[in-house]
Specification:
45 strands; alpha+beta; CRISPR-associated protein; 14 helices; elongated; 7-stranded mixed sheet; 3 domains; disordered C terminus; single chain
């Protein structure tokens, strides 16, 4: 044994290799060495040593040579001077410097109690001895661990600081009152869908399970009941339809697992208001309906005007008695002056009632809304000397579709058939039009119908529209704006994760498949109201009547929200009359230069506040709705049964039924109606989970603990998230399911007024915000924030062309 370190620990001696001062791990002396070591100590005059004593030994196996043991004194902190190099004072023999390590390590080495060091003179030179257990190598490893811990602490500290800063910024926006949070956002779509052959229903798979669980849903906000006509409940146990719960469960399942877009109209194209230069005087013509289908009442033929003039309404009212209305006949005896690309007439002498000796003309009156308020009102009139034109089914369908998004049909899902009424006759659907308070006449309401004698514009492309500048379809349908792989499953032999569990059905058959359907593996029973205390005893509940503010239909035509954000240069406003509003669905690229995709699956933020978005309108109570609601705290309990699910399928089902199992944080879901108003927030929980395999069912084998199997299944699907490219999907969904993700009192449909004016008519006019934030003539396009972004605030201020607000 040569040059070893020794340490007395209590009454026991330990030894470590010297390693030229680098030391090593201390271990007990071998039994043989322990017998003679006390003798060596005595020979070296080292007796009565205290515990914690370090010795350096130069012990020889040759009995003719003397053994040598010397005591090592650990250096006091005064002997270690920090700096770029740690200097060690070796007394009169000189000084040593520790180099070759990161400065942070050296700084630590110089601190009190860091590492016991000593200076030994070996072979005529000073050597720095590392006396810690494991020696210098152990110290280096500890430094690495310490660095990692320090970096982690620093990262956590920076993250906490950033989070606090963000919370402060968000609170400032909330307190400012000039920012709002849109009620909904979108979970992005995955790039592709994984499809497999479903498990079938013939026999249980070897690793598949069947079973059931109770799904408890605790309402955190009031729950609006379905079928408001008969939804009043007075001290009754509620029966809540399982079909409604199944829909909510499947929606979450499709999103989480990366399933197909089961409910989507791939052919959908939104309708937009046309730009100011949409009217083409050289090609657009007025027309009169001359024929409609006797069964469907679709327009099939029109009579075209071969000339169009624009007449000041004052000239018309001066010469025509009985009022103006669309479809009224007259005579025009002059050609107007060319103004802004159209022929305008202001001279009343050019106007007279219709006569048999003069060509017949017809007038067309439209809403004043699209015209500039400081300009006089001109009525379009057309000379009916042109040919007839046949209107095909697709042209008529496009016209009806364009009407459905107009102001005349707001809140009207199925407008009544008005095709049998004649202009200005009884029952004719019309609205008065005025200019600066002066009545002009009556216009035909754009309700999706036209009767014989009604007037309509026919564009150079053959399209029908109710105004020279009206509404037109966007470009590139939903199907073109999403990966084909995301469209609904159609092959029962190859289904997405959701269709393979919840079932899939398509109306059409194909040559390959006799029927395009697959039966479900999931059954959701009716829910009952139960006691919040034990979650199982039926409990009687009472609903209350609620007055609701208006709920409008979704507006996917708002491309700033429903489509991916375009590139920065494609967001700017422009006053050029050829400018197309940036929010419109047209061939506008995203950041990657590709066609803008649909944003994803729509989800609503959770949260209600006193006097918040659920407060009915006081300025226009006729727009309010009504419903019945159960109180917050109501608990619903439904039995969900399933059969023949693989471990992966079980994992996705449990994650959808109780998202907390997947995300590890509190999550809530939406039930019932009124989601835009914050109603129906419920916290889901799985109870009484029962699982069994085929062998357990038929061979009475012992069942594995259901919760352990459930945990394994959820862990399995959690491991698939990155592989299936669902990371961004889950980040957004987790944020949207959080009950406290955003400030509830600032959730509101877009407004151009501060929250101090909440409840006023101006505050509730959402269209005004879109009018100045959609990249039109004023105000750049403001896209909806990504759902995973902590900052969901949108400013009411308008950003001008210089980027100022």
């Amino acid at each position: 044994m040569r040059h070893s370190l020794y340490l007395k620990r209590g009454d026991e001696w330990l030894t470590a290799p010297w390693n030229d001062g680098a030391g090593g791990k201390f271990e007990p002396l071998r039994e043989a060495d322990a017998l003679w070591f006390p003798l060596v100590l005595a020979e070296c005059g080292l007796t009565d040593l205290d515990s914690g004593t370090f010795l350096l030994g130069d012990l020889e196996d040759d009995p003719d040579k003397d053994d040598a043991l010397i005591s090592l004194q650990t250096l006091s902190e005064a002997k270690k001077k920090p700096g770029k190099r740690v200097q060690v004072d070796g007394g009169s023999d000189g000084k040593l410097e520790v180099t070759g390590f990161p400065q942070a390590w050296l700084d630590w080495l110089a601190k009190p109690g860091a590492v016991p060091l000593a200076v030994a003179k070996v072979g005529g030179r000073l050597v720095l001895a590392w006396l810690n257990d494991g020696g210098r190598d152990a110290w280096k490893k500890e430094c690495v661990v310490r660095d990692a811990e320090h970096k982690a602490q620093k990262k956590a500290s920076e993250a906490a600081k950033l989070a606090a800063q963000r919370r402060n910024e968000l609170q400032q926006k909330r307190d400012d009152g000039s920012y709002f949070i849109n009620p909904y956002s979108f979970v992005p779509l995955p790039p592709s869908v994984t499809r497999t052959r479903p498990g079938g229903h013939e026999a249980l798979g070897a690793d598949s399970v069947s079973g059931w669980f109770d799904w408890n849903l605790t309402c955190k906000t009031e729950l609006l009941l379905p079928h408001e006509e008969a939804s009043a409940i007075q001290n009754e146990v509620l029966d809540y339809p399982g079909s409604s719960l199944r829909g909510a469960l499947r929606s979450l399942h499709e999103t989480m697992s990366g399933g197909c877009m089961r409910v989507v109209d791939g052919s959908f194209l939104p309708v937009h208001r046309e730009p100011m230069n949409a009217y083409k005087s050289s090609t657009d013509r007025l027309a009169v309906v001359t024929q409609i289908d006797p069964v469907t009442h679709a327009v099939t033929e029109v009579k075209l005007a071969d000339e169009v003039q624009w007449v000041d309404h004052k000239a018309l009212t001066a010469k025509l008695r009985g009022g103006l209305y669309s479809g009224r006949r007259l005579t025009v005896d002059a050609v107007g002056s060319s103004v802004h690309g159209r022929s305008e007439i202001t001279d009343p002498t050019a106007i007279s009632p219709p006569s048999a000796s003069s060509p017949e003309w017809v007038m067309h009156i439209t809403s004043k809304g699209a015209r500039r308020p400081d300009h006089p009102y001109f009525v379009a009139v057309g000379r009916l000397s042109g040919p007839t034109k046949q209107i095909d089914e697709s042209t008529w369908t496009a016209y009806v579709d364009a009407c459905s998004g107009g102001a005349d049909l707001v809140g009207v899902a199925h407008p009544p058939d008005t095709a049998t009424y004649t202009p200005n006759g009884d029952g004719w659907p019309c609205d008065p039009v005025d200019s600066h308070g002066t009545p002009i006449g009556k216009r035909r309401r754009a309700d999706g119908w036209l009767g014989i004698g009604d007037t309509v514009w026919v564009t150079g492309k053959g399209e029908l529209k109710m105004a020279a500048i009206w509404r037109t379809h966007g470009e590139h349908s939903v199907e073109e704006r999403m990966a084909t792989d995301l469209l609904p499953c159609s092959d029962p032999e190859s289904l997405c994760p959701s269709c393979s569990v919840f079932g899939s059905i398509r109306a059409e058959r194909s040559a390959e498949h006799e029927q395009a359907a697959y039966r479900t593996h999931i059954q959701v029973g009716w829910a009952k109201s139960v006691s919040p205390q034990d979650g199982s005893t039926p409990e009687r509940v009472t609903s209350t009547a609620k007055t609701l503010p208006p709920l409008r239909s979704p507006q996917p035509s708002s491309g700033g929200f429903y489509l991916e954000a375009p590139g920065g240069r494609f967001r700017s406003a422009d006053k050029n009359e050829n400018h197309v509003q940036r929010s419109h669905w047209y061939d506008q690229p995203n950041e990657s230069g590709e066609l803008r995709r649909v944003r994803g699956r729509k989800f609503y933020w959770h949260g209600q506040s006193k006097g918040g978005r659920q407060t009915p309108w006081t300025h226009d109570q006729t727009q309010n709705g009504s419903a019945h609601a159960l109180p917050a705290g109501t608990v619903l309990r439904a039995r969900i049964t399933f059969d023949n699910l693989s471990p992966e399928q079980l994992g996705w089902l449990l994650a959808a039924a109780e998202p907390k199992r997947l995300f590890g944080s509190k999550c809530v879901v939406h039930l019932g109606g009124g989601k835009p108003l914050g109603y129906g927030t419920a916290e889901p929980r799985i109870e009484n989970l029962h699982l069994e395999t085929a062998t357990q069912r038929y061979a009475n084998d012992a069942a594995a603990a259901p919760e352990q199997r459930a945990d394994d299944a959820v862990r399995l699907v959690r491991g698939l998230v990155e592989e299936r490219q669902l990371t961004e999907v889950h980040a957004a969904l987790k944020h949207l399911l959080s009950p406290d993700a955003v400030h509830a009192d600032r959730i509101n449909y877009p407004t151009s007024k501060p929250f101090s004016t909440r409840g006023s008519k101006e505050f509730d006019e959402a269209f005004r915000w879109f009018g100045t934030h959609s990249g039109g003539r004023k105000g750049h396009l403001v896209p909806l924030p990504d759902a995973a972004d902590p900052d969901q605030y949108l400013s009411i201020a308008v950003e001008d062309q210089e980027g100022k607000r």
